[in-house]
Specification:
Blueprint lengths: L9 E7 L5 H9 L18 E7 L2 E8 L6 H12 L7 H10 L8 H11 L3 E7 L6 H11 L5 E6 L5 H13 L6 E2 L7 H14 L4 H34 L2 E5 L6 H25 L12 E2 L5 E2 L5 H6 L19 E3 L7 H11 L1 H6 L1 H8 L2 E5 L2 H18 L24 H9 L12 H16 L5
Parallel strand pairs: 1-3, 1-4, 4-5, 5-6
Antiparallel strand pairs: 2-3, 7-11, 8-9, 10-11
């Protein structure tokens, strides 16, 4: 039996100036906001720390987080001075000689760790904070790193909103013949940028091309699965709320307690969905205030049922079943889902056959008792869809190096899909779907349609 050869991980040294975002890059690639330490103070990373990116259960990339360069100009001068007396035959040998004399250079303790890791790695990711001015120390860093004789891939970090600075840095790297560069913002994340990182490595490490392609395909599959899992979880939220109904007595009328129970159910159901969405994308409650969800202008709105929130999403707060004092309360009153009297409805159902009687037996019983159903209105369910679609979009564009609370992009399409209300009506006709069935064909078809809307985030017709 033929066994596949064990893949030797590609050693990737993540190097650069202090606070350029080296640890941030690794956090984002690992989907782990707990890796390493991130701080505004210089020299936060003091040791070389290893992590791995896997394809299935096998490590493909070994990432080495290194300390930052703090005085590259002085280091370059020391290397140049040593070259006059050293018998090293190449630049890499000169670095080895310098490392062996580490005791003579205590002021470069951290930089020597970078040099040692660079020499034993396959490729160097040179992280650049494009917000920094073009100073001579960065030219010195590139010259020092080039001495290791390894491929160097400049990675431009913090590019969001800094297009002019990015262009200047690209021109500067081109002067060093480093034309293969990458834009990768560790805060404003895009999965396509991660794919391009691996593709750039393919061009620099041709002998590892196939292994890296396997990694690309695997990571793409994982990303797709995360998005689909999140979209399905949002659909489960929508279905649970749309299918909610509470039987109330017509004689007693609608009480504040009835409304409170309904609103508490909607709020708690959405909070559970939020926790699941954070878990799917490997975020924590520290990334978002778990008691609230993003609504407008990058701020946070607590009351899901406020007319202002509905208006912000282009919805009509006056469309609820009970207008006036109950506007925005999020309720509909249904009599068995039909506008007929109890006797007429029973006769119509009987005429349709026993299958219909069985399907609507709870509605029929309630109608015969003179009771009604309290349901969550269309506008509230629509709001849940719109703002959770916005939340999903925000989570997929949040890097794991982000330190701020989740900010919601304001320019998000608010238009509902063309078939939205048709789908909503189908959900209301199946209150049993509140229990999240897994094998019902019609349920699965509706789920696939709604998750498609969520993932594509395209404008509705």
């Amino acid at each position: 039996m033929k066994h596949e050869a064990h893949v030797v991980p590609i050693k990737v040294a993540v190097v650069g100036h202090s606070n350029a975002g080296k640890t941030s890059l690794i956090r984002t690639l690992l989907r782990d906001d707990q890796f390493g330490d991130i701080d505004e103070a210089a020299g936060t990373t003091r040791y070389v720390e290893k992590s791995a990116i896997l394809s299935a259960d096998e490590a493909v990339l070994d990432l080495f987080d290194t300390p930052g360069f703090e005085d590259s100009s002085a280091l370059l001068q020391a290397l140049q001075a040593l070259s006059k007396t050293s018998e090293s035959g190449s630049s890499a040998d000169l670095l080895l000689d310098f490392i062996e004399r580490a005791e003579d250079y205590p002021e470069f303790e951290q930089e020597i760790k970078v040099l040692r890791q660079s020499l034993i790695s396959n490729v160097l990711l040179y992280i650049i904070d494009v917000r920094e001015p073009l100073l001579g120390k960065y030219s010195d860093e590139v010259e020092i790193l080039s001495m290791a004789g390894k491929p160097i891939l400049p990675v431009f970090n913090f590019i969001a909103g800094n297009s002019d600075a990015l262009m200047r840095w690209r021109q500067q790297m081109a002067k060093f013949n480093l034309h293969a560069a990458l834009e990768f913002d560790t805060v404003a994340f895009e999965f396509e940028a991660e794919k391009r990182l691996y593709q750039k490595l393919q061009s620099l490490l041709e002998q590892h091309y196939d292994v890296l392609q396997t990694l690309i395909d695997y990571r793409q599959g994982v990303w797709n699965n995360l998005n689909h899992a999140a979209a399905r979880r949002i659909f489960q939220l929508i279905a649970a709320v749309a299918c909610y109904r509470r039987e109330i007595s017509s004689e007693a009328g609608l009480s504040e307690a009835d409304i409170g129970w309904m609103q508490d159910y909607v709020r708690s159901t959405e909070q559970q969905a939020l926790q699941d969405l954070l878990t799917i994308f490997s975020f924590t409650q520290l990334d978002v205030d778990i008691q609230q969800l993003p609504v407008r202008d990058g701020e946070w709105e607590l009351d899901l049922f406020s007319p202002a929130m509905l208006k912000d999403f282009g919805l009509n707060a006056g469309a609820t079943a009970l207008k006036g004092a109950a506007a925005g309360a999020g309720i509909d009153l249904m009599v068995g889902g039909m506008s007929l009297g109890a006797a007429s409805m029973l006769g119509a159902a009987l005429g349709a056959g026993w299958a219909a009687v069985r399907r609507y037996q709870q509605e029929l019983k309630a109608a015969l008792r003179g009771h009604r159903w309290l349901c969550v209105d269309d506008e509230t369910v629509s709001l849940l869809f719109l703002r959770n679609r916005r939340l999903l979009h925000s989570l997929t564009q949040r890097g794991h190096a982000a330190q701020n609370k989740l900010h919601v992009i304001n320019e998000v399409q608010k238009k509902l899909p063309g078939r939205w209300y048709k789908v909503l009506n189908i959900l209301r006709q199946h209150p049993q779907w509140q229990q999240l069935p897994s094998s019902n064909i019609e349920y699965t078809e509706i789920q696939d349609e709604v998750t498609g809307w969520l993932i594509s985030n395209e404008k509705a017709d």
